[in-house]
Amino acid sequence: MSSLRVNSVSDTASVVPTYETKNYLIDKKETGVFETQKTNGTQRLYRLQAPQPDYNKQSAVNYKDANSEPRFNAVKQISGELKKTADAITEKFPPIYEQLVASLDNEESVQVTGVNSASAQKDTAEVEVSRLARSQENEGKPLKSNNSDFERGNNRFEIENKNGSSKFNINVAENDDNKTVQNKAANAINRRDIGVKASVTEGNGNMSALVLKSKETGAENGFAVYDTDENGITEKLGVTEASQEAQDAKFTVNGEEKTSASNSVYIGNGISAVLKGVSEKPTQINLSKDTEGIKSKVSEFVTSFNDLMKTARENLESDKLTNKLKSAFNSNSQNLEESGFTLEDYRLKTDESKLTQSISEGDSLEKALGSPNERNGGFARDVSLLARNTQANPAGFADGSSILEENLAAGASLMHMGLYNSIA
Question: Is the pLDDT of residue 52 over 70?
Answer without folding.
Answer: no
